[in-house]
Structures are given as C-alpha cells and as structure tokens.
Amino acid sequence: MSDTDYFVVGEPIRDEKAPEGPINERWDKRRFSAKLVNPANRRKLSVLIVGTGLAGASAAATLGEAGYNVTSFCYQDSPRRAHSIAAQGGINAAKNYRNDGDSIYRLFYDTVKGGDFRSRESNVYRLAQTSVEIIDQCVAQGVPFAREYGGLLDNRSFGGVQVSRTFYARGQTGQQLLIGAYQALERQIAAGTVKMNTRHEMLELIVVDGKARGIIARDMVTGEIETHFADAVVLASGGYGNVFFLSTNAMGCNVTATWRAHRKGALFANPCYTQIHPTCIPVSGDYQSKLTLMSESLRNDGRIWVPKQHGDTRDPRRIPEDERDYYLERIYPSFGNLVPRDIASRAAKNVCDEGRGVGPGGLGVYLDFADAIQRMGRSTVEAKYGNLFDMYQRITGENPYEVPMRIYPAVHYTMGGLWVDYDLQSTIPGLFVTGEANFSDHGANRLGASALMQGLADGYFVLPNTINDYLANGPFEKIDESHPEAVAAKEQVTSRIDTFLSLQGSRTVDSFHKELGNIMWEYCGMERSEEGLTKAIELIRNLREEFWRDVKVLGVNDELNQALEKAGRVADFLELGELMCIDALHRRESCGGHFRAESQTEDGEALRHDDEFAYVAAWEFGGDGNKPVLRKEDLEYEYVEMKQRSYK
Description:
The chain is an alpha+beta fold. The chain has helices at 26-33, 39-42, 54-66, 104-114, 121-141, 173-191, 256-263, 327-331, 341-353, 370-376, 378-396, 451-471, 484-502, 509-523, 530-550, 562-586, 610-613, and strands at residues 8-9, 46-50, 69-73, 91-92, 156-157, 164-167, 194-197, 200-208, 211-219, 225-229, 232-235, 268-269, 274-280, 303-307, 324-325, 365-368, 405-414, 417-418, 431-433, 615-620, 629-634.
C-alpha cells in the first residue's frame, strides 16, 4: 500500500493571526492590535482551564488576577501534583548574565535550529522575547534559583547551545517553578476568582454553534458526570508520551483532553514528533510501569562513553582510558556531550546496536563523573547534582560518585499537539491550547530547558494577551445542561463508560497499553521506516479491534475506579498511535526526533527534504472508520537560513 492509502489531502491551512513586519516587533504589534476587555466587563466573562501544570496554573492565576471568572480542573488530588513538578534541569532565558554572547536572537536561532527548521519563526521569536520576563516573574515570586557566591543568579549550559542561559534550582527546577505558580493560583482561589476542581477528568468538549463552550468531566471519586460551561476553554493538559507505555511521564499523563477536542474538530499537528531523552535510567525488567529521567544538566560535567571493545563486561573503573570511546566528543567536537537530545539519543542507540552497550542486555552507556569530581571536588559536584545522584542510587543501588551512571534513551516529550494560531487558539473558536498540549514552538525537536520556558510563557504572558481578543466579543449566549449539544456530549460520555463496563473480556487494560507501547517503540521510536510503520498501522488496528472485543474493566462507575479511567485513556491512545504512525509514514524525511531510515546522510545524520516537507502536518479527524485529512501549513523562513544541522 502507498502511504496515501491511509489519508486524504485537504485544503491548506494558514495562521491568520501572525503579524507581519520586523520579527522583533511582531509580538508588540499583535498585543496592540488585539481587542481589549475592560476590567468591569471581565467580571462578566468565564474561562475554563483543564490542567494545573506550569501552563495551566500560571494561566489560571493570571486570568483570575485580571478579573475573569476562572474554573480550573485537574485529575490529581492537588494542583501541585501536576507532572511539571518532575522537570529537573532548568529553564532558559536570554539574560546574557554570563556575558558569553547570548541574546534574544541567539535563543531564537538556537531554538529554530534545534527544532530542525520545522517550527514557526514568529512563535519562536516571541518565546525568546518572553523568556527574559519569565525569570523576573519567578524571582519576584520567590522561586529559589541557584545563585553564585556573590548572590547573583547562576546559569549553566544545556544541550544544543554553546552559551550558559539555563536558570536552575539544583535538580528540582520544575518543582520550584510549579510551587511558584501554585501559590499564585491558590491566592486567586482564596480571592474567589478561581474555582478549583481536583480529582476531575475531562472526557468531552462541548461545542455550540462552532464555538467551544464547556466540557464534560467525571468526578473521579464519586463517578458523577458533570457539565461545566464557560465563554472560552483552555487546554493545558500536557503531552501524550505515555502512548509508548514506558516513558518518563507520570503514569496519569494522557491524551484524552486533546484527543476529545481533536475528534470535535481541532486539528492535531505533527503527532509523530516525539522526543527521546538521552539521559534516562535504563529499563530493568518487564515489571516497570514508567522510566526515570536523569536531568540533561548532568551532561554539563558528566562524560558519556562506551568501551571500544565489543561485549566488554569489565567493571568500568578497570577499563583504561585508551580503551574508552567518548563517542559524542569524538563525533561532535564543537558541542561534545552537549549535542541536542535527538542526536545524543540516536548516537547512544547506534553504539549499543554495534554491541558496545553496557549493563543488562547491552542497552546502556556510561555517564561518568570521575573527571568532574577530580577537577572540582566531590563537595562541588554534590552541591550541583546531589539530589539527582541520590535518586539514581536509590533506584539502581549503585553509587554514582564511585561507579559511572548507566543511561539509555527513553520517551520524554512530545513536540506535536493541537494546532494553534499565533493567539494559541485552535481551529475551534474559543478553544485555546497552551504548553506541551499545543505544537507551536519546538518544531521537530525541543531543546533542553525549553519546556518550562514555553509553559510559563504561554500561561503568564501570551494567553492573557491574546484570549482577550476573543472574549471581547462576549459574553456569549448563556447555555445550560438542557442545550442539545450539552446533552449529546454527556450522552457520549455515559455511553462510552457503559460500554467499557459492559465488556467482559479476558485481558486487562494495562496489557493492551503495554502491547501498544511495544509496537510504538519498535516501529515509531528512535528510528522509523516505511516497512515498519506500515506494519505498525496494521498491528494497531488489529489491537484496537481486540481491545473493544476482549478488554475487561472491573468495578462500577459511581466510585473510584482506576481501571475505568485507564480504559478511556488507552482507547484514545490506540487511535492516536495510528495517527502518529500515519504522520510518520507520510513524512519521508528525517528531521529532529523523526528519523526515517531511508533518509540519512552518508555518516548517518538526519537528512531533511525542505523542498517537499517544509510544512506543519495538521490532521483533521475524518470520522470513525474514515481516513484522516492532511492539511498543510507551509513554513516560511525570513530570518534564519534553512540548512542541514551540524554540531560538529
């Protein structure tokens, strides 16, 4: 079969909101041209926000402070348990505190290049501009960033760049930033501008007259199916990396909020762009349900190597220096261990495929701090990375101060997500999407320390300056639970739940999720091919049929039921997995996290085809049983020259 047998091509799509003119003036131009809502009228308008990570919490706090009536939802028992808390390494900002040549333009350039020239120039430049405001905001909130001896904020370098622009709080940066956003959110909850709904999961989007007007949510404790309305809806529900089953994401992370919106008309952009993080603790057995990230910041001082000799099982401390291959330093001398994540991950896979991997199954490489400890002293290393070293030792039982860490790539972040315009509005009017849930800023690969930057930029600074352009036309017609669209959406949810609970098959939900994850990792992971992707699509379709025929969901709806929660999420993952493989199949080039075996240079590097694929692939849901529709948004570069990336 040809790849076009799996989809149809629709009308192109264009971002109508992006301003023209000099790139450094576009954000100011858009903020000025956007309609405003006066403070008195904001009290008459309502916004519903799904998710309380950095993007969702910061958006809710900011919109609540502005005077809007905000209703916030999360499935955790507290907003501060959102997965943003797990981020370790840092947050980028073009402050140039180190006086090492950094600038807003350099951050913009590094991000576009790091994304392998598959992101929008306007969005990325705005992100770089906003980065300098984020740090000031967080410092004012009391976020305890690391400081130098003299009291100034410290910086460190990260993969894909040659300057030090990453602000950090040891290995707990995400946690500290989320606490800052959480405190701002709690202040608005206390003030009454934000109503918080914990332990609630969004299961459907309500669309009335073409506009997003609310959601159907399930109270995860009582099972009650609730209808909530607003003048606008914001999805800040994170990424979909758990489609691979094993990932660095929290086990609860899922695609349901964005996938339900996709089925209602929101385009899903670049779903195949998945980031494989190079610095994770290797898989240790079939019993695992998730993987653990070791911060990319470790690549600042740790050196990555494998034995030169195949099958060398000696204690790494007994392998002489001349029998070690510091392969990143050898292949990429300019960047060394600080190459971008996609390149570092594929390099690790290559040396392991050659038979030079270490640890059980040969799926690991060494991350060695012996040189750093000798150079700086153990106490200095402890001050910078101590909590990461402690975490590694608790999980593996090995002391990384004495024995090199073992690491291997794992699924970490998804650059794809719902398509949004410059205002962060999806193709459904009134539905805005922020943070990892949208596709907008990272192209085919995200540079380290940029996820926290995007989440806070969207929530604190971008969305509050763009959503008002839409809300200025409100308040919209009042609707209640009797509205036909609300009734239909609720019936869809209850019918789906009834179907799950009526299935009396022989297999658990987790068994299907694990099988899907194996298919995705094998055929749509670090390397993809036409043959493998075609096979994966058929395997997923067969698995989905079996799921609806043979899954068993125990329990009832009107109580806490994790099996029921997982069933809904895995059903959506099965549909998403097929679209990811179709997207990867149609993109016959290698770029960033998408590496097609048929498209590589003589020395094994990713080979793009800008003449054919310099566009965003925005997919429209074709309907159950129908082919998805590919709508292309052409990418145009005025300020950065598109060329093959080189980190050598």
